[in-house]
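To whoever is covering the structure queue this week,

Two jobs came back overnight. Logging them here so there's a record in the thread.

Job A:
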Amino acid sequence: MSEAEKQTIIDGGNLSYLWIGATHMLSGYDHLLFIFGIIFFLTKFKDIIKYITAFTLGHSVTLIYATFNGIQVNYFLIDAIIALSICYIAFANLDGFKKYLGIKPPNLLLMIIGLGLIHGLGLSTRLQQLPLNQDTLLMNIISFNIGIELGQVIALTIMLLVMALFRRSTLFEPFSLISNYGLIFAGLFLFIMQMHGYSHITNPDEFGFSSDNHIHEHIKMDEERAAQVIKNSQHDSIE
C-alpha cells in the first residue's frame, strides 16, 4: 500500500474503515466459503440467526481485542488455519465424524464460536496492515467491524436465496454432496497456497500469484541457497 493510499484512508475517517471492512468480507473467499458451509443445512430462520450470531460473536471478539492490543500473528499461518476451518465445516456437513471416524461430532455451535475466534484473528491481522490512528483506534476498529458485518449480511442474503432455490429442486442431494466435497478441496487448496506463501516470504503483499512472479521467487530462493553454499565452502577452506 502506497503512502498516498494510506493517507486517503486516514482522511476518509471511519467511513473508510467501514468501506474497507465491507469490501474485505465480500472479497474474502475464505470467510465466504466458511459462511456458506455454516448455512448449508440450516432451514429455520432461528437456526440461521443462532449460528451466524455465534460466528459473528467469535470473530468480533478477537478482531477488536487483538487489534486494540496490537496482537499480531503471521498472515499466512492464520489464513492457512482459516482454510482448514472450511474443510472442517464441510466435513461436518457430510456427517464425516460418524461415517468415517465413527465418533460423535463436537458441538457445532461451540466449534463455530471457536473457529469464529480464529477468523477474527485473521481479520485483525489484515486491519493492522492499514494505517491506524491511535487517537481514534477504537472507532476505527468498530467501523471496520461494522463494515465486516454489513458485507456478511449482503453475502448471506445472496447465499440464502440461492440455497432456497436449490432446496426445492430434486438436484439438491447431489448438489449438497458436490458442494461440500468442493468446500473440502477448496479449503485444502487454500491451505497449500498459504503454506507455500509462508515458505517464500513473510510479507503477504510481496506474494505474487502470476507465474512470472512465482518463478522469480524460486530463482531468488535458489540464489540465496547457492550463496549460502559458497559462503560455507569458503569458511571450510579457511579452516
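Job B:
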Amino acid sequence: MALACCPGAALAVSPGPGGGLEEAAGQLAGAATAQGQAQAEADAWAVERDALRDEIRREGETLAWLEAALKRRGDYIARREAVVAGLHDSAREMAALERGLEPVLDAVLARLEELVAADLAFLPEERRQRLDMLRETLGDYGLAPGEKLRRFLEALQVEAGYGALVEAWDDVIDLGGSRVQGRVLRLGRAAALFLSRDGALAARLVPGAAGWEALGSSEARTLAQALEMHDHRRAFELLALPVGTAQLGAQPGAPGGVQP
C-alpha cells in the first residue's frame, strides 16, 4: 500500500486486487486534478461574491439617493401646489374686484365732470379731451380693468396737480365786449385773475360761469403787486386777492376759454 499527500488534502490510495503501482499513481493524479478544479471554482466564486457585494452596496447607495431625491421633489411639488392654490384665490379676488370696478369708475367720472364744470374754465380744451378719453375708456369692453383704472388715476392726478400750481401768462380776453391784452395770474384752481397791460383794468374768471368779471381799481393795484411777486420783481408779502371758490353742484356754464 502507498500513501500520497498534496496541499490542503490527504489522499489514501490502495491498489485493488491485482492492481499495480501505476494504477495507484493514476488515481492519485486524478484526485489531485479534481481538487485543483474545485479550488479554482472556489476562487472564482469568491471573486464573484465580492463583486456581488460591491454591486449590492452601490445599489443601496443609489436607492438611498433616489429616496432622498423623491422626498425633495415631493416637497417641491407641495410648495408649487400651494402657490398655484394661492394664485387661484388671487384670480377669484381679482375677478370680484373687476366686477365692482366699473361702477366705481362711472361714479368717479360723473364726479370729475361735475368738478370741471363748476371749476375755473382754464385749459378748457385739454380738460375736455381728458374727459372724452375717460368716457371712451369706460366704453371700451376690450380694455383690461387694470388699464382703465390706471388711466383714471392718471387723469385724477393731473386734475389734482392743477390745484397746486401758480402760473402767469400773457393773454387777450373779452372784457365787457372789448378785447383787452394783459396778463393772467392763476392761483391753483382757486382763482384766475387778469390785469391789463396798463394796469388800469382787472378782472377775474368766475368759477362755473362764462367770461370775466370786472374788478375795481384797488383790486387792480393788488393784482399788479401779486404779478410782480410772481415774476420775482417784488418781495413776498400778504395780499388780499379776490379769490373765488368752486362750488360742486353749481349750474355749469360754458368755459371762458383762457389758455396759457
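Note for Job B: The first strand starts at residue 2 and ends at 6.

Please reply-all if you pick these up so we don't duplicate work.
Q.
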